[in-house]
Design brief:
The complex is a heterotrimer. By secondary structure, chain A is mainly α. Chain A contains 27 helices and two strands. Classes of the chains: A mainly alpha, B alpha/beta, C alpha+beta.
Chain lengths: 542, 342, 348
């Protein structure tokens, strides 16, 4: 066995370019993923860790976080399932519309949903007070539950939709042929085969719920949660040790969920990718089910619409809740802070490029038969288990003393690597779709490992590269949790300014700047897709 | 196609390295300030400072002194900021004890006749504004809900534990905010520790929320999510004047106060500039700005009282033992968490 | 000297032995086919020549140079893949020219050689098309051209026709053979289709369970199969297990047949009889050895011949009768088995 390994290594040496790239990638990942994480975990002392159970507030926070995790995950996954169903069955109406609507919360900064809901449904809310004249308190866990459901169901939808689409239609036809009613087909075939996808979605959403604090900060009120605790430790008390402790506590469940998803659920995929993509139609959806699903989708879309409407309305209202007159004064204030938007874009672009490049490179490397590629794969997806605050603290501890510290770069790198798993997994999935024999043909004709990447994979993965870039860009531009730790006076980004504005109660300006940020995000993505459309007009694969 | 990608990447790298991308190195005419005061006051003060001295200011404004404290701690091996401004002195003192601050005694203090009560005898911090803890009422809600039942407006701290305020009260958390903690300490100085804890427990039955951040209390009160609050007077006055919030400020006797401080960070990029900054804050203009736009009291005698506020020397403060409050901070917070813990 | 030589090559995947100590010599300029059912190891063997698998034991030689450890991209063993594996984002010109580009050939020279090889495979003028704009047959030719243009030592083809429909398959295989003979290229060809193998090969290596069962010319394989597997895999056959009862005579079940001389009495043998070797008569033929009476159970008309399943002497016989102009027979028939057409195998 060892002899075989050695022989294998010797053969890898014949392709030195590839081996070097592999080592380089491993070093980069180790430096920017593993090292900061370790720094956080070793910052508190042993005694600090042992003191955790005796801290009442932290135990409460932990309990509350777990409760929220359960209920928000359940509702978000359920809603995601409904939407996934609505957007993948060909006989459902307005599929494109619902899918696009469902994606909207993903573009919004983490606190936007909470902010908008306070504007809409709070005591001064447009809907609750303005229209219905009600006096409602949405703070605390009920409000957070609603907000988190809306904020995170798109994640669930994307994952489950992917799995539902992969269910071979001929299975459904076979079931019908054997006498199953439409309901039975949905229940026993379509949904049953999608179960691993649903489980996977739940785990991913759960991690997001646990780590969420943009929304929690605004709407949880006095309800202590782990994610917000670390923030408050820092903000209120300057207690870095406490923050590190709480954040380390948070990593335990998120890492656990992550491992569960990766090594248990992902293995159980029953659905085989048919590869050639069957052109067969699906069995029809029972009409009653169709109506229920559509109703839910319409209602949810309206809720999402309220989020965007709320923020835009807030930007134009003189004093929300008291003076409903139209006003442009907030825009003046926001315009003074436009520099922050430029900074946001700069960082977003940097982060996006890094994620796309590293993601595709690592995806390529892990598809080779190189030793220790499992380790590389693990490092590339590890950031998915880490909450943003954890990464933020880690990077501060790890790089402050280095030349990187205090620059635009450390923030961009932190964001880029935190979002690496998305880029990496998207690229890997696309890579797997490319027939192996194409690569072998290139090798057969004389291309070495790296040339194969350059000549064959990159052009075919262009779309994947752009997707990775786009996702990383959006999330970098709207990020709050990492920004707040790594921000420097010269590089103030929009989300940071906005959060400060919300906290100092200048809502109008916050809404105006948020609106600008949103517009910027959408425009940038639009431009990117246009660029790809021109350049990446590749024939469909297979 | 590949060429386009390379072009994009190159463009991006260039963009990143262009001015604005490099590390923040303070040149002789630039200082870096971490400010816990809101954006408006901070930028006005800094504009004046630049006009007066020619030194550019790069400010990081985080309305939470705790975060800035943490940043200063983590950056201690390579401090990036010159000055830490804002927040009560009790937030600066721990940094001094950890050796992170630079001693300085501004000559302006003597020249202006500023009371030495407002300046650290050891020279680590200078106070330049004052705040008073007060009771704030949302008159809108009070008049609608409580007044008809014959409830009188609270005038003292003890009034707050009256049963008719059950569920109507909010205040900042003593654990995560400076103001909340000063309130707790003030009660201990007022009542003695045991009775103070009884008071806090009684108050707790009326409290609907302990906000994790100080501005959060005002936010809730403004929006009518609560009727009565304990908060810095200047926050309420600001909300009332700038945002037409229906808030009334009542400063009870035996109240607590803050001395807003500024300190110089040890090993910062531009120590001379930092000293100039401290000197500047001791002059009239910035304190005037803070009074007019931030509604905070000035430590100088020649600055006008903030609009709508009672002069500071007319307020009745509890005898506050700063050293004791700093030394017992951890213990008291832990006990509060255990006994009340919300 | 053999052009390509495999010496005691073994390859394992986990617990399975895919190729088990195979030795093979491929003469220069010959068309050698690896034939066998799926899982027999033929593709693995081919891929070891290409360098995609490294043998666990044994060696690969090209002109007596040991290339076992040479990585795949440094070998000059161009391959045509089953799925063609054309680069979808490159034009025909770029696809075919890819190998030349890897070898550092100048652009103008690339274009010249590509044009040359395209005309060879009948695709002149298609340089600017993309693979998805071509038919299956055209794509296959591009794949072939791409492999030929680099002038490889040996050309490897991995079931290149399996994605074409039947009629096209026949036409294209002939073209491939013609091209090979014209260029005098050494070719190693892999297929599971025995008719294809018989049609175009100089030599066939029949494989099963990772071992070569027999190597020989198509005629040898067909008429003198070395064992039951080869006999059964290549073409159809009637098998009778029996014993040599006397010199030139085998007794198998109810039947006693006159067979060619050879094995001594008492030897256990298997009689192999091709369907076309048996003569079918409607009326009893003149007296002779090996005449059996039977009944037709099923008959199929296959165009060039009629195939009968005849029950006689306690078993079913498959009989092929060429050019049945008069229609198919039925009912009672007589089988005549010429002695010299019987092939004997050692039993087991």
């Amino acid at each position: 066995m060892a002899v075989a390994r050695l022989g294998e290594l010797r053969r890898q040496a014949a392709d030195p370019g590839l081996l070097l790239t592999f080592l380089g990638a491993a070093a980069v990942l180790g430096l920017f993923v593993l090292y900061p994480a370790i720094r956080v975990l070793i910052y508190p002392s042993w005694q600090d860790y042992l003191g955790i159970p005796s801290s009442l507030r932290w135990i409460q926070a932990a309990r509350n976080s777990l409760v929220m995790m359960v209920i928000s995950t359940a509702s978000a996954t359920l809603l995601g399932l409904v939407f996934a169903f609505a957007t993948t069955r060909p006989d459902m109406p307005a599929r494109r519309f619902f899918r696009n609507a469902a994606m909207l919360p993903l573009f919004a900064p983490p606190f936007m949903v909470a902010f908008a809901y306070i504007l809409m449904f709070g005591r001064q809310g447009l809907i609750t007070r303005g229209i219905f004249g009600m006096d409602v308190n949405i703070f605390g866990w009920p409000g957070l539950w609603v907000v988190q459901t809306i904020a995170f169901f798109p994640l669930a939808m994307l994952i489950i939709a992917g799995v539902l689409e992969a269910v071979n239609p001929s299975l459904e036809h076979a079931a019908r042929n054997l006498g199953a009613t439409e309901w039975a087909v949905v229940r026993t075939i379509s949904l049953a085969l999608a179960r691993p996808g649903i489980a996977g979605a739940m785990l991913v959403v759960a991690i997001s719920v646990l780590a969420d604090f943009g929304n929690a900060v605004l709407i949880a009120g006095g309800f202590p949660l782990l994610a917000t605790e670390s923030w408050f430790r820092l903000e209120g008390m300057g207690d870095l040790t406490g923050a590190a402790l709480v954040v380390a506590m948070l990593v335990v469940p998120t890492a656990g969920l992550f491992l569960l998803e990766r090594y248990v659920v992902a293995r159980r995929a029953y659905v085989t990718v048919t590869g050639r993509g069957s052109r067969m139609e699906r069995a029809p959806t029972p009409p009653l089910l169709r109506w229920i699903v559509v109703a839910i989708c319409v209602f949810t879309t309206a809720m999402i619409g309220l989020v965007y409407f709320g923020v835009i309305a807030g930007a134009f209202t003189a004093i929300w809740g008291r003076d409903w007159s139209l006003s442009l004064q907030h825009w003046h204030l926001a315009a003074e802070r436009m520099g922050s938007l430029v900074t946001s874009v700069k960082i977003g672009v940097l982060a996006g490029v890094i994620t796309a490049t590293v993601g595709v490179l690592v995806a390529f490397l892990t598809s080779r038969r190189l030793p220790l590629r499992q380790a590389l794969d693990f490092l590339a997806v590890l950031p998915g288990a880490l909450p943003g605050v954890f990464v933020g603290v880690g990077f501060v501890l790890a790089f402050n003393r280095t030349p990187l510290g205090g620059t635009l770069w450390v923030l961009a790198i932190a964001l880029a690597f935190w979002h690496l798993p998305m880029g990496y997994q998207a690229a890997s999935a696309r890579l797997r779709q490319i027939e192996r024999s194409i690569e072998e043909a290139a090798i057969n004709l004389g291309a070495s490992g790296l040339r194969v990447l350059w000549d064959v994979y990159l052009p075919l993965l262009l779309r994947g590269l752009v997707e990775a870039f786009a996702v990383s860009f959006i999330r970098a531009v709207t990020n709050v949790s990492i920004v707040v730790f790594l921000i420097t006076p010269g590089q103030l980004v929009a989300t940071f300014i906005i959060l400060g504005m919300i906290q100092s109660n200048t809502w109008g300006a916050a809404a105006a700047l948020t609106t600008m940020l949103l517009a910027l995000t959408f425009v940038s993505i639009g431009l990117t897709w246009l660029a790809v459309g021109r350049v990446g007009r590749l024939p469909a694969m297979g | 196609m590949r060429r386009i990608w390379i072009a994009v990447v190159a463009l991006v790298l260039v963009a990143g390295v262009l001015p604005g991308g490099g590390p923040v190195s303070a040149q002789p005419n630039r200082i870096v300030v971490y400010s816990a005061l809101p954006d408006l006051e901070t930028s006005l003060v800094h504009r004046e400072f630049t006009r007066r001295t020619g030194i550019q200011v790069e400010a990081l404004v985080v309305p939470a002194a705790g975060t800035l404290q943490a940043r200063i701690r983590t950056e201690k091996d390579r401090p990036r900021a010159d000055v830490f401004v804002g927040g009560d002195r009790s937030l600066h003192i721990p940094l001094a004890r950890e050796g992170l601050l630079e001693r300085y005694r501004s000559p302006v203090v003597q020249q202006a006749g500023i009371s030495t009560d407002f300046v650290d005898p050891a020279g680590f911090w200078h106070g330049w504004y004052l705040g008073a803890l007060s009771i704030i009422i949302n008159t809108d809600r009070f008049d609608r809900e409580l007044a008809p039942r014959g409830v009188r407006k609270p005038a003292t701290w003890d009034d707050l534990v009256r049963p008719e305020f059950r569920g109507h009260f909010v205040m900042p958390s003593p654990v995560t905010t400076g103001g909340g903690y000063i309130f707790l300490a003030a009660q201990i100085f007022r009542l003695g520790e045991d009775r103070a804890w009884a008071y806090m427990r009684a108050l707790n039955t009326n409290t609907s929320q302990y906000t994790p951040t100080a501005p959060g209390t005002i936010a809730l009160l403004e929006r009518g999510e609560a009727t009565v609050a304990m908060m810095w007077a200047h926050e309420a006055i600001g909300a009332r004047i700038l945002r037409a919030a229906p808030l009334e400020v009542i400063v009870p006797p035996d109240t607590g106060f803050e001395i807003g401080a500024v300190s110089i960070i040890k090993g910062g990029p531009n120590p001379a500039g930092a000293r100039a900054y401290v000197d500047f804050l001791m002059t009239r203009t910035p304190q005037d700005v803070n009074a007019r736009f931030g509604f905070r009291y000035a430590v100088r005698g020649d600055v006008g009282v903030p609009s709508g506020a009672t002069p500071f020397n007319q307020l009745k403060f509890v005898k506050y033992d700063l050293d004791w409050s700093v030394q017992n901070q951890a213990r008291l917070r832990e006990r509060w968490t255990r006994e009340i813990g919300r | 000297m053999a052009h390509v030589r495999l010496h005691a090559v073994t390859k394992r995947f986990g617990q399975t032995i895919a190729v088990d100590g195979v030795s093979l010599e491929v003469p220069e300029g010959s068309f050698t086919t690896l034939l066998g059912p799926s899982g027999c190891g033929k593709t693995t063997l081919l891929r070891m020549v290409a360098g995609f698998h490294h043998p666990d034991a044994g060696d690969v030689f090209v002109r007596d140079t040991r290339i076992t450890d040479v990585p795949a991209h440094r070998r000059n063993t161009a391959m045509v893949f089953q799925e063609y594996a054309l680069f979808p984002h490159m034009t025909v010109l770029e696809n075919v020219g890819y190998g030349l580009r890897m070898r550092g050939v100048a652009r103008s020279e690339q274009e010249r050689r590509v044009a040359q090889v395209l005309s060879l495979v009948g695709l002149s003028g298609q340089q600017q098309k993309f693979p998805h704009q071509l038919s299956g047959g055209q794509q296959q030719r591009v794949a072939l051209a791409r492999a030929l243009v680099v002038e490889p030592e040996v050309l490897l083809l991995d079931e290149p026709l399996s994605n074409l429909d039947a009629k096209l398959r026949v036409r294209v295989r002939t073209e491939i053979r013609q091209l090979q003979q014209q260029l005098r290229k050494t070719v190693i060809y892999v297929t599971h289709d025995q008719e294809e193998a018989l049609a175009i090969s100089d030599r066939i290596a029949v494989m099963e369970h990772g071992r070569i069962q027999q190597i020989g010319t198509p005629l040898e394989i067909y008429h003198h199969p070395a064992n039951r597997f080869v006999a059964d895999f290549v073409g159809l056959a009637n098998f009778l297990d029996g014993e040599v009862s006397a010199s030139g005579q085998v007794r198998a079940g109810e039947v006693t047949l006159a067979v060619p001389d050879g094995p001594s009495p008492g030897t256990r043998v298997t009689v192999v009889l091709r369907p076309e070797a048996i003569r079918l008569h409607a009326r009893p033929p003149q007296d002779g050895p090996n005449i059996l009476q039977g009944r037709v159970t099923t008959a199929s008309f296959l165009g060039t011949l009629a195939r009968y399943w005849v029950a006689a002497a306690g078993r079913t016989w498959i009989v092929d009768v060429p050019a049945p102009g008069e229609g198919v027979l039925s009912g009672e028939v007589f089988l005549e088995i010429p002695r010299e057409r019987i092939h004997l195998l050692a039993a087991g």
